[in-house]
Specification:
Length: 189
């Protein structure tokens, strides 16, 4: 009788300790996942700020550079795609397209000295540069949070809890294709 009680107490203790470990791992995954979600929302906020600023930049450039309609249209189209993106992967792709289009727009601006000297345009470009810097910092923060979550999710014994409860890997923001290429500015025109 005593042996069966000890065995039963030992089994209950093991189940209790296993439960504590599972709850601890589950809660740490939830905390890390919420950090990723918060960082993702911060990126969305920064992207929206840039999205709201872009029409002012585009309209200012339109007034000076009517023949650069293709570049202006690419910025507008990329901005629309970003506004409609719902998944992290779609946002990364649309953000990459918008960044590329903005780079081309800024190269076009180099050909219009009157535009560059306009106080309104200078103010807008300073705001746009600030928005781009805040987006870069938000992406870095998101990637750090996603990396912490992904590492925790893959380590033992948390990986068992993650698989049981369906915690999925979080995508990272990566540099857009061609980001390493410097836009060319041609003053010979």
């Amino acid at each position: 009788m005593r042996t069966s009680r000890r065995l039963l107490a030992g089994i209950v203790l093991v189940i209790f300790l296993l439960g504590v470990v599972i709850v601890n791992k589950y809660n740490s995954l939830v905390r890390l996942e919420e950090n990723v979600n918060t960082a993702s929302s911060n990126i969305d906020t920064k992207l929206q700020r840039r999205n709201d600023l872009i029409p002012n930049v585009v309209n200012t450039v339109k007034g000076y550079a009517k023949q650069e309609k293709g570049v202006i249209d690419s910025v507008t189209n990329a901005r629309t795609k970003l506004a409609g993106a719902s998944t992290t992967e779609d946002k990364v792709k649309a953000d990459s397209e918008l960044s590329s289009a903005i780079s081309k727009l800024l190269v076009v601006v180099e050909n219009y000295p009157d535009l560059k000297s306009s106080q309104n345009f200078r103010d807008l470009t300073v705001e746009l540069e600030g928005a781009e810097n805040r987006i870069a910092i938000a992406r870095k923060d998101y990637n750090a949070a996603a990396n912490d979550y992904n590492v925790k999710r893959r380590t033992f014994p948390t990986n068992i809890v993650a698989n049981i409860f369906g915690f999925k890997e979080k995508a990272l923001y990566k540099a857009s294709e061609g980001a390493q290429n410097v836009p060319s500015v041609d003053f010979s025109k």
